[in-house]
Amino acid sequence: MMETIVKHGGACMHVTGFFAYRDLPCGEASARAFLAQYQSTGVLDFADCLGVYRARIDREDGTAVWFSDNYGGSSFFINWQTGTISPSLYESAAPEERKPNPVAIAEFLYFGCTYSYDTIFSGVTRSDPDCYYVVRDTGIETRSKELPPLEQLEPGQEAMASLMERVCRAAQGLSMGCAVTGGVDSRSVLAHLLANGVRPALTVTGPPDHPDVCLAGKIADVLGQELTVFSDAPEGDAWLQEAIRQVDGMAGVCGAYRLAKQSGGLAARGIALKFGGGAGELYKNSFLNQDFPFYGGKPDWKRFLRFKVITYDFPDGICGGQTEEAIRQTPERLYRKFSRYSRPTKAESYLCAGYAIMQMRLAGISNMENRFYAAYTPLMERSVAASVLGQPPRRLEMQAWQRRQVTQHAPVLKDIPTDRGLTCDSARAGTEWARSMWFLAKVAAGRVFRRSRVPSRIDRCFAQGLSSPAYHAAVERCRELGILSEHVQAEQIPRMIADRVFAVGMMFSSPQERTGN
Fold this sequence. Notes:
Layout: E1 3-8, E2 11-21, H1 28-41, E3 49-58, E4 64-68, E5 77-79, E6 84-86, H2 102-111, E7 124-126, E8 131-136, E9 139-144, H3 159-170, E10 176-179, H4 185-195, E11 201-205, H5 211-223, E12 227-230, H6 239-247, H7 257-268, E13 273-275, H8 301-308, H9 321-328, H10 330-338, H11 346-369, E14 374-376, H12 382-386, H13 400-409, H14 433-449, H15 461-465, H16 469-480, H17 495-507, H18 511-515
Parallel strand pairs: 10-11, 10-13, 11-12, 13-14
Antiparallel strand pairs: 1-2, 2-3, 3-4, 4-8, 5-6, 5-7, 8-9
């Protein structure tokens, strides 16, 4: 993992990750200029920073200033009771001091993330990318970065191209990789890397016959490059303990295993900066298509939540006590939260809410990857997200945004099929319309008529992980804490929820239980 330390005028700045300031190269040059600007003006110029990183400035007076990137890809954890900050959630509180946060645990079990900066530990929060933190002997103070809201940023049609040109200049000399799948989002990012002369190492996760792996292979073949595939099958005797440690209570243990395996494998190959296509939902009407073709009017937040957030009914009888009550209160709690994103138009409202949703959903895996290398999600950069806010929703149908990126910047990729059986060719959007609408209709029908069906996972490590002594110990620990009902059996919990129970239980276990010693 990239780490930079620079000094200026009695202050010292520590940066971990990919940090670029203004038009300077990443790392030392950017950190030195940022620190000099702060020392000379007293102003922390967050708006001119990009990348995925966390940083600390130690000042002469003993005060420390902590902050992370502007979209939340890399986080740290604040223990408000002890006044300490840690890069790891597990290490943020001593075992005897950890107390469950019922609301955060309920959301994590339900969704695989929390829709706030609270964590499963009471009194410990994850860093807010809109804020920075001043640490003194007397305590920790939260201050706003004063970043303008997305809707106040000037939208630019070529925001992605401008960003990626700047990123590729800043990252010159780094060994880079890019995740590729059967979807259109990672292909859009790859197109811009290729357009800027970057040939990243290509990687994908999954079994050999998975559509993502097969289609990623076609992309690699067209480019004449090697594709590194990391399978979802367990490898090595210590795979489970390593997965438990890496997810750090922010993702399901088995569900994240293949990505943890990928992270370790790429880091061993010397990759310092890895690109991914996360947050592509913002660019293809994914937070608005439930209302197709009626994009006008005011936002209907209950309908929005039903289709985009609370997409299944959590089974009764699994949780206990305060956690069960928090599960029941979830719809009303999230309604209050997301209705605050109401803007003049429905599209703007849903996109602003969608950006916040993606910040929360991506945090767990992104934080895990960032322990190995800088895992960068350019589609989450605020300037790029703002570029679609003012666009008419119909201009984003049929993955038009992604098609344009690929067709204009890497046309060699445009005819390779996607996981929907479509292409990335802008000229073929019209002829592929019916097939795309059929796909979306099936998704919508599932969320209306099959809400009692908990989404399932098919990764090959699940069977072994969820039959392990560690999983059963985690379930028992959750029963002891009142997180689970005393009557529920480990085998009765649906696999996706069970995987999250596994992660939670291990976070409240001793180091010996986590390592299997």
